Amino acid sequence: MADPDRTAVPRPRLGQLLLEAGLIDEAALATALARQAKKGGRLGTQLLMAGALKESTLADFLSRQLGVPALSGLAEVELTAVELMPGEVARALQVLPVRVVAGRLWLAMADPSDEAALLNAQKACGVEVSPMVAPELVLSYGIRRFYPVPQSVVPWTEDLVPEYTRRSPVDLEPF
Questions:
Q1: What are the counts of helices (DSSP H) followed by strands (DSSP E) for the chain?
Q2: What number of other Cβ atoms are within 10 A of residue 23's Cβ?
């Protein structure tokens, strides 16, 4: 039986908070919710994609709501921080190392309350970590920018390449 004193109070939803703050209108929220239902993803991302909010406005709002610093732009990202985390870890956890202050690595993430991601990042980097908030689109772009995925090179062998592609253009007959 549930303890009546420990009933969870639901947190206000992002859309409602943005409406109350006057940062979006009902139409923008309805459009973003419809896009979210159809395509998935975070509501903030859908609002950004629709042009209803700027990245900096969303980041500042989330920062105030969650009580953590916001990543204001990729110019803030220090390479010394990026070098502490392997790219596979950053991509898997969807976090972006921003800076190191007093031996602590600050990580931008869409959900700074994701304790599992913070723990995994700390284990991977071997240093204490602290969360920052950033819109999902900013994170995606930052991760691609600072951790580019190398194009895999497929070994070309005689068995895999059709015979006609091994000839020079001069060897080929006209159509």
A1: 8, 3
A2: 17
CA–centroid distance for 77 within its chain:
14
What CATH number labels 69-149?
3.30.300.160
Tokens of 1: 């039986």
Domain boundaries defined on the chain: 14-53, 69-149
Helix, strand, coil share (%) of the chain residues, nearest 5: 45, 10, 40
Task: Per residue of the chain (175 residues), give pLDDT as tens.
Answer: 444 454 555 667 889 999 999 999 999 999 999 999 999 888 998 998 899 999 889 999 999 999 999 998 899 999 999 999 999 999 999 999 999 999 999 999 999 999 999 999 999 999 999 999 999 989 999 999 999 987 664 454 445 444 433 433 343 333 3
Contact 25, 101 (CB under 8 A): no
Q: How far is CA 144 from CA 51, 96, 149, in A?
A: 22, 10, 7
